[in-house]
Amino acid sequence: MTPASIAILSLSMSADAFAAAIGRGAVQKPKFAAAVKGGLVFGIIEAITPLVGWSLGLIAADLVEEVDHWIAFCLLVIVGGRMVWEAATRGEEEEDQPSGKRGILALIATAVGTSIDAAAVGVGLAFLEVDILVIALSIGFATFIMATTGMMIGRMVGVRFGSVVEILGGVALIGLGTMILIEHLGLMAG
């Protein structure tokens, strides 16, 4: 994967964590240090999950080598589509009334919930020749920055912008999956 593709993937994977962090920030009104700690939790979990998915994907890689690009494409389109769908269908009531859960366990549960898509992407990446450690660290770092920023934004403006970011992240994943498919089918000149 190119550095640009890794950056797009990292930002896309951090979009739902960003949206969730805006909600937490709107409820908790955290100071900067608390936002950094929350961002760190999101980032670490988001860096681990693609490694787990990638490991599971390697187990099955030899069985599906001929269709690996289709699997990566389908997983990215499904995850991206789910992100777009959930953000677009979320009611205003949900956006105006973010969860009041405040504890570390709730933070971890939220971080795990927003990182499931990274595990699915990790499965797809197992079928490609990529440096998963670079990608996982990039995803984790982007998520740390985005979640920390999201908490601070939530503190200031509330939860209204979280859905827009999540939609953009989903669209980027769909685009990335499409690029992988086109490249592996040899449809790109180059």
Written overview of the protein:
The chain has 190 residues and is mainly α. The chain is built from seven helices and no strands. The protein has helices at 3-28, 32-61, 68-89, 92-96, 104-125, 132-157, 162-184. Mean pLDDT is 81; it is low at 95-101.
Quick recap of the structure?
The chain is mainly α. The chain has helices at 3-28, 32-61, 68-89, 92-96, 104-125, 132-157, 162-184. Helix 1 runs antiparallel to helix 5 (104-125).
Give the tags.
190 residues; mainly alpha; 81% helix; 0% strand; globular
Shape: globular
Main sheet specs: none
The proportion of residues forming helix, as a percent range, comes to over 70%
What's the oligomerization state? single chain
Give the tally of β-strands. Answer: 0
Q: How many domains, as an integer?
A: 1
Average pLDDT:
81
Structural class: mainly alpha
Total DSSP helices: 7
Radius of gyration: 17 Å
N-to-C CA distance? 15 Å
Unreliably modeled segments: 95-101
Give the SSE order as H and E letters. HHHHHHH
Share of β-strand residues:
under 5%
